[in-house]
Give the backbone structure.
Amino acid sequence: MTRANKMGMLDWMPMPLTWNYIENIRYPSERAHSYQITMTCTALRNLGVNPTLIVPDRKLAPPAQEDLLTSRLTPDFPILRLPVIDALAHAPLWLSRPAYLLERFTFQRAVHRFAIRHHADIWYTRDPWMVPAFAQLGRRVVLELHDASGSKLKRLARIRRQIWKYVVITSGLKDVLISAGVLPDDILVAPDAYDPNDFTNMDDRTAVRKNWGVPDNAIVTLYAGSFYPWKGVDLVVDAWPKTDPTAHLVMIGGPINELTRIRETVRKRSISRVHCFNMLPHTEVVRQFSGADIGLLPTSPLHVVGRSYTSPLKLFEYLAAGLPILASDVPSSREILTEDIAQFFSSSESQFLSALQRMENTGWRQRASARAKVIVQPFTWRNRTKSIVQWLQSALTTL
């Protein structure tokens, strides 16, 4: 709720809320969505909301990935694990799809049984397939949408009337919902965010570069994230042999099969000055940003999820680290980035090389770095979550 102060401005007055966050994920996990959900629930708790994260009781990551889990964040909110048939834990690759469908079905049933017996002010999820499990009981459903491509768009058309409010991470997703008949007032655009605490203890630049095997005088472009084709890293790797000899590309991420694919390309083509590293725990990746000069965001315009729907965590983290950004010229990037902190390129190799060459200007990079640290300041997890809570509280007062 709000109240007017003596200056006529509006101050936010928190209203106690119970908030069930339902997500069909292995939690904690090494994946970005697990981290994003953790940071959201943590921010909710810090704002005085009472969130409960409800997830399936699934086997966690293999021992080799345990150090990547978000459990290192020590969540201070309740986590409820509902029983499911965890067929994915033992299914071979060729049975992974039916195993996932079985797990999802049993989680839907478990959530439905839970929702019959429990109430909350807000029932929140990122998964359109979970909505009917509690919406059919008259629960107040908020869907946070990160993608509307393929089957998800068809799913949204079927469940649209069961959803009370939508939170989306880009204006492109809002446009899709409006074209599907959702009222604009029922949609909040809330881009992803960063944690300022991650940038208070950065690693030593020289030590990071030594670990990478990169000389001190190199201009380092860093990519941290996944290597799926829609992320656009293939164009960059293919073009790298034509870059300046002082230019080095450092890539940190996964999953392992995609990392292996990129490494094979580098090996077969004998591409020099490209350094590929396995996925690291989130806080360790961020600390290594001190070794880079440029943050890379090469999102492919050929895929709608990258072109219009994505709001990458690394975008905000690059900015928080003071990295000017070399970005694919797609609408999702333009929602946050401006030409005083980024150089844009199209999907052609020549355009990429020209943009990288422009970034070799040391004076421009220094000015862009200073500007990046200013622009990113509002995009914290606390501010993002607060805007969602305020918006929903305002809607609740009109019911």
The chain has two domains: 2-193+380-397, 196-375. Residues 1-10 have pLDDT under 50 and may be disordered.
